[in-house]
């Protein structure tokens, strides 16, 4: 157990209690709780947690809370909890810098594992959400699988991924937030038409690489 510090931003006391019980004995420490978006952002700035678990229905807006928390604690990891959502919610969460989207009915024993995976740089996408994200890619992202189609920053992120750096390591090397790195990784996965990092590295490894001449 690594003693990760967690902020829980959930409006309902019973759900907060359930999360505490689910994480009991996991080695994670809940260092703060919030019941609405502004207080969640303020708590993130004060506590600088390793991760924040946010209810999509948080008063003040779950998506604005994602952005606010990452502004206050850019090295943190944000995971969204939801039970009633649509395609715009899922896409907005990832675009705002969230590292994952979990159903509220996730088994308690799996919660700590999922949060740790997100902290480690994995994008948490429940199986039934994959089709939503793929649909978004097909509708809005043009097909592009050559290095020349990447921005300079995307090239830099991919190059560091190939060196084996984690999301946090890439963020530190490029002097950006972890949320920004995750956004670039999502864009890379869209462009290479893959759904996970391993597939991205395999697909990119077959390409002919040349860094774009100009930053975009």
Task: Considering the chains and any ligands shown, give keywords for the structure.
216 residues, single chain, 10 helices, Rossmann fold, alpha/beta, 12% strand, disordered C terminus, five-stranded parallel beta sheet, Arc Repressor Mutant, subunit A
Kindly give the count of domains.
2
What is the strand tally?
Answer: 5
**CATH topology group of the largest domain:** Rossmann fold
**What's the alpha carbon Rg, rounded to whole Å?**
17 Å
**What is the element string, with H for helices and E for strands?**
EHEHEHEHEHHHHHH
General description of the model:
The protein has 216 residues and is α/β, with parallel strands linked by helices. The chain folds into two domains: 5-126, Response regulator (Rossmann fold, 3-Layer(aba) Sandwich); 141-204, Winged helix-like DNA-binding domain superfamily/Winged helix DNA-binding domain (Arc Repressor Mutant, subunit A, Orthogonal Bundle). 50% of the residues lie in helices and 12% in strands. The protein has helices at residues 13-23, 37-47, 62-72, 87-95, 108-119, 127-140, 152-162, 167-174, 178-191, 197-204; strands spanning 5-9, 29-34, 51-55, 77-82, 100-103. α4 links the parallel β4 and β5 (100-103). α8 packs across α9.
Layout of secondary structure:
Layout: E1 5-9, H1 13-23, E2 29-34, H2 37-47, E3 51-55, H3 62-72, E4 77-82, H4 87-95, E5 100-103, H5 108-119, H6 127-140, H7 152-162, H8 167-174, H9 178-191, H10 197-204
Parallel strand pairs: 1-2, 1-3, 3-4, 4-5
Give me a quick take on this structure.
50% of the residues lie in helices and 12% in strands. It has helices at residues 13-23, 37-47, 62-72, 87-95, 108-119, 127-140, 152-162, 167-174, 178-191, 197-204; strands at residues 5-9, 29-34, 51-55, 77-82, 100-103.
């Amino acid at each position: 157990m690594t003693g990760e510090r967690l902020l829980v931003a959930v409006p309902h006391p019973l759900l907060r209690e359930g999360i505490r019980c689910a994480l009991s004995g996991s080695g994670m420490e809940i260092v703060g709780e919030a019941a609405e978006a502004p207080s969640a952002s303020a708590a993130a700035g004060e506590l600088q947690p390793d991760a924040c678990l946010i209810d999509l229905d948080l008063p003040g807006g779950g998506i604005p809370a994602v952005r606010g928390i990452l502004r206050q604690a850019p090295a943190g990891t944000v995971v969204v909890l939801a039970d009633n959502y649509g395609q715009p919610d899922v896409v907005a969460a990832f675009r705002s810098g969230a590292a994952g989207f979990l159903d509220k009915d996730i088994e308690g024993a799996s919660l700590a594992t999922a949060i740790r995976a997100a902290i480690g740089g994995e994008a948490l996408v429940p199986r039934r959400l994959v089709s939503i994200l793929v649909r978004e890619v097909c509708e809005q992202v043009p097909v592009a699988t050559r290095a020349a189609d990447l921005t300079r920053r995307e090239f830099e992120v991919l190059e560091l991924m190939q060196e084996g750096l984690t999301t946090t390591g890439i963020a530190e090397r490029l002097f950006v937030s972890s949320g920004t790195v995750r956004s670039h990784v999502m864009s890379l996965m869209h462009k290479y038409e893959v759904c996970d990092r391993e597939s991205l590295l395999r697909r990119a490894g077959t390409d002919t690489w040349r860094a774009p001449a100009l930053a975009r």
